[in-house]
Amino acid sequence: MEKILGRVKSTLRPIKRAFESSKESLELRVIPFVSKSGFLSSLYYTFFSTQFYREHCAVLSGRVAYKRSLVEVGDTSALLRRNTHRLEKGLIMRPRRSMFASDYILETVNCYQNVIKREALSLDEKQWATDVLNQYFEVVEENTLTLECRKIFEQCRLKFNDDWIPYEYSELVTKEVGFEQLMTVFRRRRSVRWFLDKDVPKDLVLKATDAATLAPSACNRQPFKFIHLTDSTKVKKAASFAMGTAGWVDSIKNLIVVVGTLEAYPKERDRHVIYIDGSLAAMQFMLACDSLDLATCPINWPDVEQRERKMEKFLGLESYERPIMLIALGYPDPKGQIPFSAKKPSNIILKEN
Length: 353
Prior knowledge:
The protein has three domains: 35 residues; 81 residues, no CATH class; 152 residues, NADH Oxidase (3-Layer(aba) Sandwich). Helices cover 51% and strands 8% of the residues. The protein contains 13 helices and four strands. The protein has a four-stranded antiparallel beta sheet, with helices on both faces. The radius of gyration is 25 Å and the shape is globular. The N and C termini lie far apart (66 Å).
């Protein structure tokens, strides 16, 4: 039976290749025409390609989950984080307006009232929102709206030390790293594929994650999570879902799956922010790992439906959660080789306009 199946596959393989070649040839003729119109491009991806189906479903599921999160509060509130950040931007404006945030301050205090006493909500989030709102009401002009909002705030506010508010640039911690030292860190950060058979202490992974959380994020929503796999069977399975790990997957001892969540956004316009913010955090994580004598290798995550389904099921991801990338992590094998990977010079990257 196996021999028969093998022969059938051998017979079908050139037919499949011929069909795919014909399909690609037809696409290359059609695409230049339809790419000139948003409407025609949408028709093409409706009837001739399913490549964006998962993203469409994820974006819509994210909008539903966002609405649900306004009532069912977890350990973070995307709305409270966004509006608190917006208030901070208003507080630092030069000159600061006597009245600002009039279009969203009521929404903010209503959200604060709804979430602030919830046990699940992060204490850090509670303090940040409380301190910034308190600062806002101390400086904003008193009128019917602000007095009403302040009353709501005072009725439910928690007590903190008012430390987590905007501050001057001169108050930043002293910088002890110069450009050349920083460049050394950048040059040392290489994509390592060969690791020692040695456990990575969890406290080091937590330290690197602490560094990652300091990466910039649009409206400080931080719409991502790092899933840390340490079991060798799980690591190998998850890493195998990606493309590009063949031949060295057995060397990976720890794996981070960076996952973005579209639950943080009520509109389609922000659908790409999970990739931007997640990548910024991932880069800081990898640089932090190098400072802890750990090596990393970012692994590209392809948008291939079969692989997406496997990872979704394996990790138990929600429909609005998207894998962004994988990061292999461990102690580097000193004898393991790394690619030279010549980078583009700055005069190619930097363009004056």
